[in-house]
Write a structure and sequence with these properties.
Elements: H1 10-22, E1 41-42, E2 48-55, E3 59-66, E4 69-70, H2 75-95
Antiparallel strand pairs: 1-4, 2-3
């Protein structure tokens, strides 16, 4: 695995923070695994998404989402997880994290 660091321009961070808010990130539990509304069934060997956001106004918020979770069967739970996954993908896109991933 290749390790690296980088930074984002403030305008990009501000946009991502706004996206986090609109995605409901700050209202999510710290972990989706075992959450009664977000993870009622678990499939093994799935990856996890861990997103941490620190902002002066909100402090540190970290969400660990096990992608092998299936929600409670309602469309609201599924939509919350899709928004989290889209937010994480946007962070990866803006940060260019693909340059640090090893081929499978």
């Amino acid at each position: 695995m290749v390790a690296g660091t980088d930074s984002l321009p403030p305008r990009v961070f501000t946009r991502l923070l706004s996206l986090a808010d609109s995605a409901g990130f700050f209202a999510l539990p710290d972990s989706t695994l075992g959450h009664p509304a977000l993870c009622t069934r678990v499939h093994t060997d799935a990856p996890s998404i861990i997103v941490s956001v620190y902002a002066a106004a909100t402090g540190l918020k970290r969400v660990n989402h096990y992608m092998g979770c299936e929600g409670g069967g309602d469309s609201t739970s599924a939509a919350r997880l899709r928004r989290l996954e889209a937010f994480a993908a946007e962070i990866d896109r803006e940060a260019g994290t693909s340059r640090w991933r090893s081929p499978p």
